[in-house]
Design brief:
Length: 888
Amino acid sequence: MAKEKFVYSFGGGKADGKADMKNLLGGKGANLAEMSNLGINVPPGFTITTEVCTLFYENNRNYPEGLKEQVDEAIAKVESIMGKKFGDTENPLLFSVRSGARISMPGMMDTVLNLGLNDETVQGLIKQTNNERFAYDSYRRFVQMYGNVVLGVDGADFEEILEKKKEELGVTYDTELTVDALKDLVKQFKAHIKKETGEDFPEKPEDQLWGAIGAVFGSWNNERAIHYRNINDIPHHWGTAVNVQTMVFGNMGENSGTGVAFTRNPSTGENEYWGEYLKNAQGEDVVAGIRTPKPIAELEKEMPEIYKQLTEIFDKLEKHYTDVQDVEFTIQEGELFMLQTRTGKRTARAAVKIAVDLEAEGLIDKKTAVLRVEPQKLDELLHRRIDPDADVTLLAKGLDASPGAATGKVVFDSDEAAEMGEHGEKVILVRTETSPEDIHGMAAAQGILTSRGGMTSHAAVVARGMGKPAVAGCEDIKVDYKAGQFTTPDGTVVKKGDYITIDGGTGNVYLGEVPTIDPEMDENFEKLMSWADEFRTMQVRTNADTPEDAELAVGFGAEGIGLCRTEHMFFDEDRLPIVQDMILADTKEEREKALEKLLPMQKGDFKGIFKAMGERPVTIRLLDPPLHEFLPDHDEILVELTELKVKGGDEAEIAEKESLLKAIERLHEMNPMLGHRGCRLGITYPEIYEMQARAIFEAATELVKEGINVHPEVMIPLVSHINEFKLMKEVVQKAAEKVISEAGVELEYTIGTMIELPRACMTADEIAQEAQFFSFGTNDLTQTTFGFSRDDAEGKFLAYYLDSEILEKNPFQVLDQKGVGQLVETGVTKGRSTNPELKVGICGEHGGEPSSVKFCHRIGLNYVSCSPYRVPIARLAAAQAQIENPRA
């Protein structure tokens, strides 16, 4: 029996793996193998598979049998290619040890560089390079990094020791430290490690290597990595690979350097090489924002031959992968090495432009272009921008790291940002530079502002991935954490809690709250969406309660209204007293009198919405919430009544308050979401639904007379039994036929129901014999299936369920396909078994969530309905669903 392969080698013009092995080798390992196979100059090394990570956790952090022997064999291969020996004192081979999940998680897991150095091998490095300062700088970096990443010593401790040494010597930059200073730092770092851990720093290179491998596997489950996976919906069971690669050095002098680049601009999508580099630096210097790097274009002037080689590789990689690549490279004494390539993360705007451009260039077809853009990312395109006519006070200018405009209170601490965000406050996180420990604060903030770092710094990469506005490298501002403020060159002081506005599209930072305006979709967006519409077979409607929302949604491509909630119209200031009169009425006659006042108002509402939608279908849900929602708060009225009595107030006013209090108490329910609401209201007070039906059909017939062929669809809510639907259908039909007859016009309309109770799903075959359409209200269906009260669940225990992985996703945001989804599918199947022409849609919040939209496509829904701003997301998701899983 062949032994299981845990280690895959690469380099020297060949590799054991290839690009399509990302699940096993991780993205980094698979692409290093692929570049090796393409003949690109990659420092040789090997990848330990993701399966080892899984086994490592399953076996109480122990490695599988045979791994050590396979690692030793892989090291021997690298030694053979490089002509060096790992641990040799004359000609030492040094390694970098990095993580590599199947999906990129920038900065979330651990890295160790310069591994293999000790007091003896450092002498061999000096002999190799004739550069004692470089050798001890590498050694100092290694001890510092290993001490933090592997041995768990606080990184700030090493920084403090380093700063003290610079102060002692009167220098500013690390590059100014002398050889003796670097030697002393190595000693101080090791002494500090012994003091903190009680153990000596490991001198044996083999011990160092296994310590680093364990640290990388261990970092898969560190707090920041778990948080990143939660935010980005990356499964926790995937695990990470470990990449062990020969060290190449960008800090060996002025003919060396390191950089990060994209084959196209990841912010705008323009077909231009985009990135940054630093001469005489190691990789972490670029991404950590320690020094401000130079644009990649300047490399053509400084190292023309290297630039030519690099751009030829860019073109080769982009054609090979047929997508934008994000690469890391190092130049060691005039020789170019490629350290990584991966599909480049990009803004939504860039994703759309790149997809359209690659199709035009013949690299991909339209279907691939549609699949290339993540539907959820389109949210970014709908970010607001600074109003060009606004009066602004420009504070500073940085780099346009991630697009969109954001306003909020200045906060300097990530924990505080997260806490304020949880309480609904809008904040801008301001940092000198961000690190992976800031991930929770960045997620909670409206936007991010940093004073250091470039376009590929942690802040920039993570903000773009989250779709958050960010301004990076804003060197105009001086951040003072202790004072809780930052200052600008003109002396302006901005304190914690002050409002600022950032524009991630221009890099501008403004004082105060600046007005913003809605985005405009460009021609690339329109083209991509037109392709999406060519492919999708499922309609996309919108949830809209006003003509303004309806017009907005039509602009985003909505093909109708799937949910118009009539109760929202009752909360207007001029209507609420009339609604309250209707609720407080003692007789049917008094109730009808109040409803007559509401009728013209409701008719005006419907007329405006019908007009905005033209000939598109409009589904109007009759009154759904319990009546107590329209009445004042019980305790407030009780306080007012008590005060009136104590102060000897007006008797008539006291009597009115007492009557109101009794009505509130009469209407009080222990569980109103399962109480007197929906069709139950219509059954006990049919005059309410009758008035609403009259308003709908009077509005519709008037517009028919004006030449607009409207399509009203009346939806009865919260039906659980066929007899409920029959009763309410009769009320609506009677009112409709009377109005249409009196108007003397022809008008087609349909009557259907909202399916939001498990019993309705299970008896859908009965209900469908009477209903012309079903619309699944998955918000309430989720509540009644799980037995969750949404407000209580989200406020009390749902976060714990998600953190503890009891539930993978919040079921109110992402449709629970195994439970709620099965009820929906049952309802569709049963409904169409008795009514093959039954039209079926969904109108819960899930109608705009991509994975839920794709589920709706699979089970044969006619349409999904979502909020106006999510219409483009649903259109794209529906197209991808058809491409991935075609239906007739």
